[in-house]
Design a protein that fits this description.
The protein is mainly beta. About 5% of the residues lie in helices and about 35% in strands. Strand 12 and strand 13 form a beta hairpin. The longest helix has 14 residues. It starts with about 25 loop residues before the first helix and ends in a 5-residue tail after the last strand.
Length: about 325
């Protein structure tokens, strides 16, 4: 079961820019979620960049955690303080953007958490969005989960997550929607398992959740659709869980990708756990099917668009 995220989350609020090449994407859908025609559109000479309204897309083509474009495009690598997991062990050292032949477009965001079983030897990693609040609509990401460490002995209670969350844990309208993969379980459970969790309040914890006992090593498309008073979680197009009532978004949220440890069950040498993210896609206010998401994302890749943000700032 997920724990609340009482964190010291420093925010860097930036003005987000659109690459000039996005004029090609005006033909994607004219606002349609399906993005029809994007894969055949030709570049335009228009000086005014545009794209599908209410869309955020990133395929993480950055040089590293210090790449100025990463900050300019509204992402921040977490350092230092706070929970969850092993408190105050967050480090940017585990974030990278390597080539990957198994990824669409050949590049990924890699989140490598490492530990030797001691707090001093533990590094957790998280990349989060800043400055562009996302509310109702469709959230989707292509994520690679790991069932065993890249190096070292297996057995850690590691949590590989994709989630949206309020900028402040003390907000009166606190909102959080989680996909959490626990290859070795945790909090007394035996994995592998995927937890989907909708939060109403962080402290004291008030949430509803569903656990799916399955092994997810490899690439998967994780989706959360929050529309019409419901939040529906799906995996590769299959619905897993729906929350409603008070367990739906009540305010704009940030996106987080995180790889962390629940506890330190044993020493005995270093080990490293990799989680990878191929791309992230958001469509404001609309329920978008997996087929429509993939068609739109394919169009962005065909157009050479690495980053898009047409989400209204108000």
């Amino acid at each position: 079961m997920s724990q609340s995220r009482r964190t010291s989350r420093h925010r860097v609020w930036t003005v987000l820019t659109l690459p000039a090449l996005l004029c090609v994407l005006a033909a994607c859908s004219g606002g349609s979620a399906s993005g029809g025609g994007a894969d055949t559109a030709a570049p335009s000479a228009s000086p005014t960049p545009s794209g599908p309204p209410g869309t955020l897309f990133d395929n993480f083509h950055y040089s590293g955690p210090d790449d100025p474009s990463l900050t300019a495009n509204g992402w921040e690598v977490r350092n230092g303080a706070g929970s969850p997991g092993i408190k105050d062990t967050w480090s940017s050292a585990g974030a990278g953007f390597p080539s990957d032949t198994t990824a669409q477009g050949g590049r990924v965001l890699q989140l490598q958490a490492s530990t030797d079983g001691t707090k001093q030897g533990t590094r957790q990693v998280e990349v989060q969005s800043t400055g562009t609040g996302l509310f109702t609509g469709t959230y989707a990401a292509r994520v690679h989960f790991s069932n065993k460490p890249t190096s070292g002995r297996n057995g850690d209670h590691v949590v590989q997550t994709f989630f949206s969350i309020s900028p402040s844990d003390s907000s009166a309208n606190y909102s959080e929607l989680d996909h959490e993969y626990l290859p070795n379980g945790g909090w007394g459970s035996v994995g592998p398992q995927l937890d989907t969790v909708s939060w109403y309040k962080a402290d004291p914890p008030d949430r509803v959740s569903h656990t799916s006992k399955q092994r997810l090593d490899g690439w998967h498309i994780m989706m959360i659709t929050a529309v019409n008073g419901k939040a529906t979680y799906s995996l590769d197009g299959k619905e897993l869980f729906t929350s409603s009532g008070k367990y739906v978004p009540r305010e704009k949220m940030d996106i987080h990708f995180s790889n962390w440890f629940i506890d330190l069950p044993f020493t005995g040498g270093p080990r490293a756990w990799d989680m990878k993210v191929n791309w992230f896609y958001y469509k404001a206010g609309e329920a978008v099917s997996l087929a429509e998401v993939q068609k739109t994302v394919d169009g962005f890749y065909s157009a050479g668009a690495n980053y898009i943000n047409t989400v209204p700032k108000s």
